[in-house]
Amino acid sequence: MKFIFFLLKLINRLPFPVIQKIGSIVGKISYYAVPRRRKVGLVNLEKCFPEWTQEQRRIILKQHFEHMGKLLVEYGLYWYGDAGRLKSLVHYQDKQHLDDALLSGEKVILLYPHFTAFELAVYALNQDVPLISMYSHQKNKTLDEQILKGRHRYNNVFLIGRTEGLRAIIKELRRSDAPFLYLPDQDFGRKDSVFVDFFGIKTATIAGLGRIAAMTGAKVIPAIPIRQEDGTVVLRFYPAWEHFPEGSPEADAQRMNDFIEARIRENPAQYYWLHKRFKTRPEGEADFYR
Fold first, then answer.
1. Confidence band for 279, pLDDT divided at 50, 70 and 90
2. 99-111 tens-digit pLDDT
3. Model confidence pLDDT, tens digit, residues 152-201
4. Helix (H) or strand (E) holding 144
């Protein structure tokens, strides 16, 4: 693991276009070297885009692996790179939606789905905005320590362990003026989840967004990071949702899924397809990933 960290430090010193090229190569190799994840990605794309041909899905998945390769090799930038250099690679769009809410004293939940440029964008944003975020500890102690060190790089983040649950989030959001960075679009099992549509599929969806908003009065402001052709990232902020929460966990979760789905359809190769998003099925339904 320490050798990998050393390589990332070396890669960080390279020109950014070269880092992007290395990332693309890593992604292309990984497409063939990690067949289990390739299968998960193909299943997800088949379920979400049945109207596409198998070749169309393979093309998108290959592009996705390249984006993931860039994400991985860029950790040298996130952890060791010059802060100004890193920040120059991310451009904000419509950030006034966040700025205006914070200036008016609003509590804010940043809805931040798993697009592949999410790390680069958040390391830049955290230089400007304090954040509350959740963290899942890694099994590898060395990796866990390095990730935590990176997260605290700007002394501008408050991390909550995922096992601490909703109560800890509510407590910190009420106490702090910082936005809560919320990444809800993964399968966390049946507990605290509801089954609502995601690409027309009944999907176990964590129901925390509406609950947190209701208990804190926080505004939900989505933020989506999209990588451009030159490798830089545009972090786009969307207007705060009106009339949210809507009154039921299912309605709130459905609104969230509909928004995320719409953004995925705009940039399908940049969404995180390698997670078993549909692992938890309604009673009686077969496993998608067998």
1. very high
2. 999 999 999 999 9
3. 999 999 999 888 888 999 999 999 999 999 998 999 888 889 999 999 99
4. helix 141-151
Q: Judge whether 282 and 195 are in contact, CB under 8 Å.
A: yes
Average pLDDT over residues 205-233: 96
The whole-angstrom separation of Cα 191 and Cα 187 is: 10
Cβ neighbours, 10 Å, residue 241: 20
Contact 118, 224 (CB under 8 A): no
| CA distance linking residue 174 with residue 184, whole number of Å | 20
Looking at residue 236, its amino acid is: R
Secondary structure, 3-state, 76-117? HHHHHCCHHHHHHCEEEECCHHHHHHHHCCCCEEEECCCECC
Long-range interactions of 258-261: CB distance < 8 A, separation 24+: 258/197, 259/111, 259/222, 260/113, 260/185, 260/198, 261/198, 261/199
Which pLDDT belongs to residue 163? 82
Whether the pLDDT of residue 138 is over 90: the answer is no
Q: What is the pLDDT of residue 164?
A: 86
Buried/exposed code over 246-271 (b: 16+ C-beta within 10 A; e: otherwise)? eeebbebbbbbbebbbebbeebbbbb
Q: Cβ atoms within 10 A of the Cβ of 74, count? A: 26
Q: What is the torsion angle, in degrees rounded to the nearest 10, for the CA atoms of residue 155, residue 131, residue 263 and residue 113?
A: 80
The pLDDT, as a whole number, for residue 165 is: 82
